[in-house]
Amino acid sequence: MRREEYRNWRHLFKLDPDKLINDEHLDRICLSGTDAIMIGGSSGVTFENTVELLSRVRRYSLPCVMEISNMDSIVPGFDLYFIPVVLNSRQPDWIVGMHQQAVKTFGHRIPWEMIVPEGYCILNPDCEAARLTDSQTDLDQSDVSAYAKLGEQMFQMPVIYLEYSGSFGDMELVHEVAQHLNHARLFYGGGIVDVHTATEAAAAADTIIVGNIVYENLEAALQTVQVKTE
Amino acid sequence: MRREEYRNWRHLFKLDPDKLINDEHLDRICLSGTDAIMIGGSSGVTFENTVELLSRVRRYSLPCVMEISNMDSIVPGFDLYFIPVVLNSRQPDWIVGMHQQAVKTFGHRIPWEMIVPEGYCILNPDCEAARLTDSQTDLDQSDVSAYAKLGEQMFQMPVIYLEYSGSFGDMELVHEVAQHLNHARLFYGGGIVDVHTATEAAAAADTIIVGNIVYENLEAALQTVQVKTE
C-alpha cells in the first residue's frame, strides 16, 4: 500500500494478539469490507502472538498495520507502524521515553517512512490503557482540543487519537476536537458496539476503530462496517 | 524576515531580559555581524522586561526572535518564536504540559507559521535550566543521539538544541549527534567564552548561541562572531 492511503480509511478493526479469534471469525472480519486491520493491545502482546496473528491476516489482501505498545513485540512485515505518543500521560516514558529507547536500540534500522505517530488522548479513566500510562483523564473539551492542536501543529502529528477504550465517548467533544484540526486525521476508539454507535462516532471523527466487540459479538461488529457506505 | 532564513544562521547572541545591558554594549552586539538576537532566559523573564529589550533591539535591522520560557512573558512583534520542548525532562509539563496550556489559553490567536519548536536536551546537571526542568542529564552519546533523532523524525522538529548552559560541552558528542540528523538544524549553547570555544562549537553544530559571556566580557563575546567567516 502507499503510505498516505491510511488517510482515506474510515473504519478499522483492531485485533488484539493476546485474544483468541478462530479462523472463521477472522475470515469474516478480513472480508467485511473494513479498510484495514490494526494489530495491537495494551497487555500480553508479544513477538510470538503478534507474528502469528499477522501471518493469519496476511492471507487476505487488505492492509495490515501494527500499533506498537512495547519494543519487544515489534514484528517486521506490516504495512505501517503506528506509534502512540500519549499526550496526556503523567509519565514522560509514554510521551518520549520509550520511544527514545526504541530509537537507541534500533537506530538506523527504523524505516521512518513506515512510521505514523499518533497523538493519543486517553479519556476513560477506568480503562487499562489509562492506568498503564497514568493518564490525566479529567479533561474538558478545551483541554482535549488544545492537546489535539498541539499534537497537530507543534509535533506535526498526522493522527490524533481519542481513546475511550471500554466506554463510548462524549461525541460532542469528539466533534469539537475535529473542528480544531486542519490536516491531522482524527481517530476515535472506544465503546463502538453496534451500527448505531459506529454511525455516531463516524459522524464526529474521521476514522473509527472497532475493537472489543469483535470478541464479544461478531455479528454486531461486522455491522459497524456499514459506516463506510453512509 | 522569511521564516526559513533561520536555517542559515551560524551565530546568535542570546540576551536575557532579566540582565542589564547598556546602550553602548547593545549597540556593539547588534552591529557585530551576528545573524540574529534571541531574547530569552530561565528566570525573571516578564512581559515588561521582554518588551523593553525587544524595543531596544528593534532599532537595528537584524532579526530578533523570542525563546519562550513562560506564558506570561510572550510579547508580540518578534520575527519568530522558538518554543523549547525539553525531551529529557522528567516532568511532562516541560515536554507538552505548559505548551498545551498555552494553546488552550491563546487558541486561534497563535501564529503557527511563526513558531519554531526546538527539541531540547539539557546536558549540564548544574545549570539552572536543568534544575528547573528536572532534566535527566546522565546521558551518553547514544542517548542524546536517540533523543535528537526522535525529535527530528517523530516530532518533525526543525531544531534540535543541545544546551550545556554554564559549561562547555562535549564536542565529540555534539559532532556525533550532528551526524544523526538529516534535516533538523543543530543548535549548540553553553560555555562559549571566546573565539576558540566558538570555533570548536561551530565546527560541531550548525548554529551556536552565545549568551552569558556578553555580560561578563563583551570583547570576548564580540570575537565569537568570527565563526561566521571561517
TrEMBL record, chains A, B:
Q: Which reaction does it catalyse?
A: sn-glycerol 1-phosphate + all-trans-heptaprenyl diphosphate = 3-heptaprenyl-sn-glycero-1-phosphate + diphosphate
Q: What class of enzyme is it?
A: transferase
State the SUPFAM superfamilies in the record. Answer: FMN-linked oxidoreductases
Which InterPro entries does this UniProt record tie to the protein? GGGP/HepGP_synthase_I (IPR039074), GGGP/HepGP_synthase_sf (IPR038597), GGGP_HepGP_synthase (IPR008205)
Look up the EC number in the record and give it.
2.5.1.n9
One Pfam entry for this protein is PcrB
Q: Which GO terms describe its molecular function?
A: transferase activity
**Positions contributing to Mg(2+) binding:** D16, S42
User: In what pathway does it function?
Assistant: Membrane lipid metabolism; glycerophospholipid metabolism
Q: Does the keyword Lipid metabolism apply?
A: yes
Give the family per the record.
Belongs to the GGGP/HepGP synthase family. Group I subfamily.
Q: Which HAMAP family match?
A: GGGP_HepGP_synthase
Functionally, this protein is described as follows: Prenyltransferase that catalyzes in vivo the transfer of the heptaprenyl moiety of heptaprenyl pyrophosphate (HepPP; 35 carbon atoms) to the C3 hydroxyl of sn-glycerol-1-phosphate (G1P), producing heptaprenylglyceryl phosphate (HepGP). This reaction is an ether-bond-formation step in the biosynthesis of archaea-type G1P-based membrane lipids found in Bacillales.
Q: What is this protein called?
A: Heptaprenylglyceryl phosphate synthase
Q: Which organism is it from?
A: Marinicrinis sediminis
Q: What is the lineage of its organism?
A: Bacteria, Bacillati, Bacillota, Bacilli, Bacillales
